[in-house]
């Protein structure tokens, strides 16, 4: 896990032009860099990182730690309250001080050079001191990372990405739990158009930026012909058949790659095609597992996360297109009813369309 995380963080730093080398220690990564602030913000974008701290490194000695804390406290904008948290790892023989000693002495030093007072419950600023063997890392702030697991520690998943607000967030969640994603967009012909495809491509670009050392190129399957047939032949169950075609295409990509399942951005009841009953009908089109990380999330929470991972703007591109959905979409369809209304051989045609898949390689 830590080896993988080190490689991912190093790739992310290199991709964003941050000069750095990444050292793997027992339970931490130490990034050596001339720009700790930028390096910390960048590293905190890597799935698997819980926090990153722009730190100064000193010898593991209370006086040296005190000097570093004083320098940080003087340089940082004033706050009313603060706390010093220290952690010491290593043999007791290595250190003749405890973490409590570092906190007490560090607190005194910060108090002496600023007007702030100690608040251990809810401080405006927390100084962190981490002593490992002969080194002490001292920081005045911590940047929260996404947590989760390093990308590449789980098997890949095919992510159906439409480019709307939901599917990029769902794909990101799969990455955040360690799965590289193989993004798949199904073009809709006259029901989509270039803007629709550009929106999907832009959001996938953002996602790729979180794991630049993995293949996250957009795969596109032409689905315009199938969409036209469904509009011509199918009434209120049309969107269910469309979803079934999408899932079947994704399943073929799963079978042809090293992926082990499908991810979608669906949430219970968010759209007529996503009622609990309708999800059962769409799932029946495939044997591959369909993962829905957003299943129980409300839209405002999803949108908030889209902003946090920077896909919101791209997902908001206006896409003028013809309507694919019927006037009165079915909300409680049965599999029998959907199959009866579906054009013969729809799923086989969907599978065959994957032969024309192309990969966007910029
Ligand atoms: N053209 C497409 N290409 C690839 N996947 C798609 C496409 N359209 C829909 N999907 C997948 O099906 C899911 C449901 O699509 P739908 O348009 O009903 O819902 P949505 O909740 O608005 O999703 P999104 O916000 O991602 O567009 C999407 O989250 C996505 O995973």
From TrEMBL:
The keyword Magnesium does not apply. It comes from the Archaea. Pfam families: ThiI, THUMP. SUPFAM superfamilies: Adenine nucleotide alpha hydrolases-like (SSF52402), THUMP domain-like (SSF143437). PROSITE patterns: THUMP. Its EC number is 2.8.1.4. One of its GO terms (cellular component) is cytosol. Gene3D superfamilies: 3.30.2130.30, HUPs. Coiled coil: none annotated. The keyword Nucleotide-binding applies. ATP binds at residues 160-161, 243, 265, 274. One of its GO terms (biological process) is thiazole biosynthetic process. One of its GO terms (molecular function) is tRNA-uracil-4 sulfurtransferase activity. It catalyses: [ThiI sulfur-carrier protein]-S-sulfanyl-L-cysteine + a uridine in tRNA + 2 reduced [2Fe-2S]-[ferredoxin] + ATP + H(+) = [ThiI sulfur-carrier protein]-L-cysteine + a 4-thiouridine in tRNA + 2 oxidized [2Fe-2S]-[ferredoxin] + AMP + diphosphate; [ThiS sulfur-carrier protein]-C-terminal Gly-Gly-AMP + S-sulfanyl-L-cysteinyl-[cysteine desulfurase] + AH2 = [ThiS sulfur-carrier protein]-C-terminal-Gly-aminoethanethioate + L-cysteinyl-[cysteine desulfurase] + A + AMP + 2 H(+). CDD domains: THUMP_ThiI. This is Probable tRNA sulfurtransferase. It comes from Haloplanus rallus.
């Amino acid at each position: 896990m830590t080896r993988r995380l080190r490689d991912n963080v190093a790739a992310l730093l290199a991709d964003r032009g941050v000069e750095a080398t990444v050292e793997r220690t027992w339970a931490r990564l130490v990034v050596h860099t001339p720009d700790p602030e930028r390096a910390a913000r960048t590293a905190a974008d890597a799935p698997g990182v819980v926090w990153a701290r722009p730190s100064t490194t000193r010898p593991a000695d209370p006086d040296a730690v005190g000097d570093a804390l004083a320098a940080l406290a003087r340089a940082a904008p004033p706050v009313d309250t603060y706390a010093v948290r220290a952690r010491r790892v290593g043999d007791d023989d290595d250190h003749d001080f405890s973490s409590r000693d570092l906190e007490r002495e560090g607190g005194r030093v910060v108090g002496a050079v600023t007007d702030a007072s100690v608040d251990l419950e809810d401080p405006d600023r927390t100084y962190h001191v981490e002593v490992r063997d002969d080194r002490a890392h001292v920081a005045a702030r911590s940047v929260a990372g996404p947590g989760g697991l390093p990308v590449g520690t789980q098997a890949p998943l095919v992510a159906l990405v439409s480019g709307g607000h939901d599917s990029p967030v769902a794909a990101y969640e799969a990455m955040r739990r360690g799965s590289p994603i193989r993004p798949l967009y199904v073009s809709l012909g006259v029901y989509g158009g270039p803007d629709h495809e550009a929106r999907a491509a832009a959001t996938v670009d953002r996602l790729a930026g979180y794991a630049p050392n993995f293949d996250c190129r957009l795969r596109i399957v032409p689905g315009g012909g199938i969409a036209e047939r469904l509009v011509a032949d199918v009434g209120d169950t049309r969107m269910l058949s469309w979803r079934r075609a999408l899932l079947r295409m994704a399943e073929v990509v799963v079978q042809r790659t090293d992926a082990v399942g499908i991810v979608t951005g669906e949430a219970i009841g968010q759209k007529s095609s996503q009622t609990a009953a309708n999800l059962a009908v769409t799932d029946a089109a495939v044997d591959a597992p369909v993962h829905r990380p957003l299943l129980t999330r409300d839209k405002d929470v999803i949108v908030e996360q889209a902003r946090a991972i920077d896909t919101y703007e791209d997902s908001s591109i206006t896409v003028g297109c013809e309507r694919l959905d019927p006037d009165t979409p079915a909300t409680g369809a049965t599999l029998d009813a959907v199959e009866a209304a579906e054009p013969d051989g729809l799923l086989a045609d969907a599978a065959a369309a994957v032969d024309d898949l192309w990969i966007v390689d910029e």
